[in-house]
Amino acid sequence: MSNGYDTPMMKQHSEIKQKYPDAFLFFRCGDFYELFGNDAVEAVKILNIALTKRQNEIPMCGVPYHAADTYINRMIKAGKKVAICEQMEDPKSVKGIVKRAVTEIITPGTVLEEKHLLNKQNNYLLSLNIKGLWCEVSYIDISTGDFEVTEVEFTRDLNVLKALLFKVRPKEIIIPENIWEENAKLRELIAENENVLINRYPEWFFNKEETTAIVLKHFKISSYKAMGIGGEKTDITTPGALIRYLNDNFRGDLSHVRRLRYNNNIGTMELDESTIKNLELLRNQNDGTIVNSLLEVLDRTKTSMGARLLKKWIVTPLTDIEVITKRLDTVEFFYREQFILEKTNRSVKNIIDLERLASRLVTDKAGPKDLIGVKNSLEECLILKELLNNIPVLHDLVSKINPLEDVVSLINEAIKDEPATFIDEGNIVRDGYSEELSTLKDIATKGKEYIAEMEKNIKEKIAVPSLKIKYNKIIGYHFEVSKLQSVQLDSSFIIRQSLVNACRYTNKELSEFESKILTARDSINEMEKEIYYTVRNKVVECLDAIQMNADIISRLDIFTSFAEVAADYKYTRPLLNDGYELSIEEGRHPVVETKLDYNEFIPNDTAINANDFIMIITGPNMAGKSTYLRQNAIIVLMAQIGCFVPAKQAVIGVIDRIFTRIGSSDNLSRGESTFFVEMAETAYILNNATSKSLIIMDEIGRGTSTHDGLAIAWAILEYIRDKRNIGAKTLFATHYHELTELEKKGGFKNYSVAVSEKNDGFVFLHKIIDRPAERSYGVYVAQLAGIPDDVVQYAEKILENLQDSVKTDDVKVNLSFEQDLFGFTEEKKAVNKHKEIVDILKFLDLDRLTPLQALTVLYDLKKKSN
Known about the structure:
Helix 7 packs across helix 8, helix 13 packs antiparallel against helix 15 (368-388) and helix 15 runs antiparallel to helix 17 (405-414). Helix 23 (674-688) links the parallel strand 23 and strand 24 (694-698). The N and C termini lie far apart (102 Å). The chain has six domains: 8-106, DNA repair protein MutS, domain I (MutS, DNA mismatch repair protein, domain I), CATH 3.40.1170; 114-264, MutS, connector domain (Nucleotidyltransferase, domain 5, 2-Layer Sandwich), CATH 3.30.420.110; 299-404 and 542-569, MutS, DNA mismatch repair protein, Chain A, domain 3, CATH 1.10.1420.10; 435-526, MutS, DNA mismatch repair protein, Chain A, domain 3 (Orthogonal Bundle); 575-780, P-loop containing nucleotide triphosphate hydrolases (Rossmann fold), CATH 3.40.50; 789-865, no CATH class. It has 28 helices and 27 strands. It is an alpha/beta fold. The strands form five sheets. A seven-stranded mixed beta sheet has the order 13-23-24-25-21-26-27, with helices on both faces.
């Protein structure tokens, strides 16, 4: 009995599927792409389409070929590989099974079409390999030609690799099979990245000699030294593995990939994943979007190229003061010269995505309109060069712009201003560019006049009023006359088709004309294609210059973006040096302040020096401690990417790393408690921070018992203070008021958030002051949060007893809610009134009180006592 796979078509499907076992095979059947078996079962979950059954219960599903792009895009976004299998013959002209073959393999890391890409985000294909204590990582975005290799420590906690993967956010990963199988933690780490396609290959795929040969062949060089990669760094395999994978799967030209850069992280600040997340640099922690992130505030870029580069800058701050200063000089120029800023922006926003255009040009995915985009962009590049080249601070950058005026002239002469979208449509070449093409176009366009004249002459000659010259795709040009008048035609007219009421004829003159005009049309299309490809190839020859222009425009885009933001939000230029000081006057949180009304945000100062370098910050929640912690780290980061900062003044000794331990980041799915995660992140900080680092810690030790937490927090602070260990600048927020005693030891300075006590409660002033908090105000915060009044009042009673006790063991309050929990409510109201009177007396300044004021106070007190 047949099992359904025995039919000729299903046998053909099985043979092709065996060659692409890891891909979803889109199998063309007439007007549909069909998926069978397990492909169908899995695909319907992603595509949200119906699963049906073929004969003998073979699962199947299908999508219309004309709408296939939409469905393929869903598969790619879900991290799947798709193989497109087309019919290679016309089914109408073939007896039996139609020949089919895979014409394209589409994977998340190899797509080029704009419909599959996000304009402001790189699309990386990544490869990694483990060598002892080091992990070699390469990543390439074939849509832009960006290609980098680096090596990171492969430590037990994988924090460095985790940070790299978080920054790169690959869509697809290539890894040796044995490395994948042997490293459970690595598998867990990669699994944290959703919708990433994992490709596991045998060890030979990463063979050093073979991968090296592949790289050298691609770049047409004799050794890695030609790209500035020397010494032990030549023992790399992942770049070659990437190119090998692309050669097998991409099936496109990679000539736009012209440089491999070794990223040694020298001159840059290292940021781990926790810091990037906690500071919400690229996306917020609520829904993962750009809203309420630093990127949202800083991104005023006009091009997709600039937006992609800005993301890299934000997560890769600099430590080289000279480079930072050059960036700040450029931003300051545009900040001060608003007229030039506006003119620069007008040109930059008219420049297309030259990075991604380069890949489309070499892979023949570009069209005539793209050439016009190149021309217009190069014209804007010339305008920018003429505008900015003589400005000293911009000369080194702008002088490298190559406006390629020969290319612009060629496109201007050869291509219409509004050409067709696709080359098969014709209407590409400008009139008059080619004499031969113009002649052919005359024949084609004047054909209608010629036909009208022929029809008129024949009607007059043979007196057949109904005769008309017509055209259809089946028989071409023909004479059509009524059946009654057809007898008047002589033997020179040859019958082509007989209808019910008419007959269709041709003759020698009409046949010769038809041949001439059809030949002209075919020749026009071929000649237009030839001219288009000639111009395109000339552009491709200049890819190095185009890619250089793209890089320069991206940088200008960021500089003008920084200048715009600085002007709008009244940022100031920071002063950076090699010293230890961190001095910020009236600093503000760049994101939070944009969400408040004008002047509503309360600025705060920060003063850290070699003597007082650990700030212990106490005070209530909701008072702004976390905002203050984050804003200091963000201000440092903004300064070191070359941006002005939200402060009245900022002096910053260059920071080598920013560490943050803020909030709870439980990983319960991996069996890790809140406290374990807290301690693991703290251990990473203590093991990696230096005296030039900035450490931000919020509520360390709260995940365990009070005594344990206090002991751990105390020990951590002492360890950081010891310059033999770390000696790093530190902002440490805590509820452990006992830690304020550390100020007596030196190196520590106590701060708190100011609170104003009013008759009806407290007001958090969001102002940092240089003294410890007197209390935590936790009960008041609970009241603000909506905890029932009776519970709040009982909490206050317990708190008073605790505070009156020398030791916790001496507390006399029965904490069981079985005692008269709510019976003391009226008593508490009286106590509150008494406390209110005492508080008024406590804050009276008797030395400055006039007799009249004293009488007024007494009158108020008597009124309250009643």
